[in-house]
Design goal:
With about 400 residues, the chain is an alpha+beta fold. It is built from 14 helices and eleven strands.
Length: about 400
């Protein structure tokens, strides 16, 4: 008996046991999740084994030609490798670069970010294809922070990780948006213990934004043409308050986070300005009216400790405070940022994004844990910012 025959016998035995165990159940029971994942796996494996056994080479070729999920990128791999080399030449030495697996534990995005599982490519082996390198970095950071917490001398130790990785998401993007269903990004995260007085948050924001601004400056002298670079700082708690007051549909907002010129709060009586040059421009009475005084004070601190310093080192960059930000609802915890730039054709793209999350708090069940994440759309940049 060959090893392959032995595996088939084991699979067949498991399938027979599962069919007996769940005898009488219907498709509705399957959809409702009443079959446990570890029982479902051998059933699905056998089903796909039988499906593939009936397929011809021409069937596979046809699927390759008609499925956007499997098509290669239009951007040269050599081009992206050169960009990765530039990035890693700038990344601080305390950031460890790691090579992620192409799959993650099933449910990592749904439980940490409340992402709808319909947007994630789930597999029959209780994993899901990587849809966000920052969640994968977060779970590895939590694992390493757990090791730190076991030692009295390492409890305050930070974990800083980064990666360049291809991810896949199932939602369709607006034609001409520049966004693809599978794409390469550079991502970085800093995990650690609350250092008090919001110092962890502002220090990390300054470091992460500074890295991406340094990168864009180097790229502007390396054959690329990012213009009108703008950093927009937000506190997602402000958006949460506006949504509650305006009654806007969160699902609609989530579907339009990358839709150009989508401004859901402009015509619904919200008096809070969309963007301001400084959070101090928002009157205290207006902040109290919307219940955002704490968030506005946090933005004022971010201005003093982040943007004021970065303005000195990057005088050519525009800095704003976005009070209507919708991207990041259910994702960021409070402070977050977005960096945009315009290419030679006059189109503005969001290139870098990041902020504070509660993911390591959830993973380690500790309110003292902190995690700042960020990412740069390296493939998006390569494909749209090469100088004309």
């Amino acid at each position: 008996m060959t090893e392959n025959d032995s595996d088939q016998d084991k699979t067949g035995l498991l399938v027979r046991k599962m069919l007996e165990k769940y005898d009488g159940m219907t498709v509705s029971d399957l959809v409702a999740g009443k079959i446990k994942p570890y029982d479902l796996q051998p059933l699905m494996m056998k089903a796909f084994e039988n499906i593939v056994a009936e397929m011809r080479t021409s069937d596979v070729f046809g699927k390759y030609q008609n499925n956007d999920l499997v098509k290669p990128s239009d951007v040269s791999q050599k081009e992206m490798a050169r960009l990765d080399a530039l990035i890693y030449g700038l990344v601080p030495e305390d950031f460890e670069g790691i090579e992620l697996s192409p799959v993650c534990p099933l449910g990592i995005n749904g439980t940490l970010t409340m992402t709808n599982q319909k947007k994630i490519l789930s597999t029959i082996r209780n994993t899901e294809v990587n849809a966000d390198p920052t969640t994968a970095l977060a779970i590895e950071s939590a694992k390493r922070r757990a090791e730190c917490l076991k030692s009295a001398g390492r409890k305050d130790e930070k974990v800083s990780l980064c990666t360049s990785h291809r991810s896949l998401r199932l939602q369709k993007y607006q034609e001409g948006s520049g966004f693809l269903q599978h794409f390469r990004t550079f991502a970085a995260c800093t995990a650690g213990k609350d250092s008090g007085d919001k110092k962890f948050e502002t220090d990390c924001m300054a470091e992460h934004i500074g890295l991406y601004l340094d990168l864009l400056e180097i790229l502007s002298h390396s054959g690329y043409s990012p213009r009108d670079i703008t950093v927009r700082i937000s506190d997602i708690r402000i958006t949460e308050k506006i949504i509650d007051i305006s009654g806007k549909d969160r699902n609609e907002l989530a579907l339009n986070t990358q839709t150009r010129d989508f401004k859901p709060f402009i015509d619904c009586g919200i008096r809070l300005p969309e963007t301001v040059a400084s959070p101090r421009m928002v009157e205290a009475e207006l902040a109290d009216e919307y219940g955002i005084r704490t968030a506005m004070r946090f933005l004022e601190r971010a201005e003093r400790e982040v943007t004021d310093k970065l303005r000195l080192s990057h005088p050519e960059v525009n800095f704003e405070f976005d009070l209507h930000r919708i991207a990041g609802i259910g994702y960021y915890e409070n402070l977050c940022f977005k960096i945009t730039a315009t290419n030679d054709r006059g189109t503005e793209y969001p290139l870098a994004d990041g902020g504070m999350t509660d993911w390591t708090q959830k993973l380690l069940q500790s309110k003292k844990e902190r995690l700042f994440i960020g990412g740069f759309g390296s493939e998006l940049f390569c494909g749209n910012f090469k100088g004309l």
